[in-house]
Amino acid sequence: MLYVIITKAVLSYTEIAQICVRQGIGYLQLREKHLSDRELIVAAMEIRRVTRNTATRFVVNDRADIAAVVGADMLHLGQEDMPIELARQIVGDMPIGLSTHSLEQAQAALAHRPAYIGFGPIFPTTTKEKPDPTVGLDSLRRVVELSPVPVVAIGGIFPHNINEVLDAGAKSVCLVRHLMESEKTEERIKEILLTLRKSGG
Q: Chain-wide mean pLDDT for the chain?
């Protein structure tokens, strides 16, 4: 499965959402930490309009309040965001995914019964201003083996190293820069989906 995250994209929110719907992307997350609350709500509503009643689940990053207001399908929380128990008071039974950056964090996150966990960065990345230390392929393999929910491998993944990630057992991957920093987003998504199909992911 390909998990798409929108952050500082070349294309518009509507264009990316339409591409994801056309290509049957399962998860589309909005992660725009530089936007004001008003801008974030407008962006989220724009994406929600496109993804509503489609197979593409719209995920809001960090902000339980905005996820609830726009009627997102899911919420995603990082290690420094509000605790999942508090978030559930805001979003109710909305599924929640959790970011993890070590085996210990993954084990702790799984105790909260998330819909999925993100795990990374697998390789060095510059997507975040303060990236976490790389976890590597061996740790990814261990987390995939112990997790009863999907594990989304993320961080520094590109076409030249994606097969290493898949060989480590990952069935779900996220390539942020490769998809967001190009006007050829749809073409690149198609190529990654083909790679995933060939690997059985």
A: 95
In this prediction the pTM is 0.94
Binding residues, as ranges, are 29-33, 61-62, 81, 99, 125-128, 156
Q: Please confirm whether the linkage preceding 121 is cis (ω < 30° from 0).
A: yes
For residue 37, which of 76, 63, 8 has the smallest C-alpha distance? 63
* Runs of H (alpha helix) within the chain: 13-22, 37-51, 64-70, 84-91, 103-110, 136-146, 162-167, 176-180, 185-199
Work out the pLDDT band at 127, boundaries 50, 70, 90: low
Which domains does the chain possess? Answer: 3-199 (3.20.20.70)
Task: Say how far apart CA 159 and CA 21 lie, in whole Å.
Answer: 22
Instruction: Cite the annotated binding site for Mg(2+) by residue number.
Output: 62, 81
Give the model confidence (pLDDT) of 137-147 as tens digits: 999 999 999 99
Name beta bridge partners: 28.
Answer: 4, 58
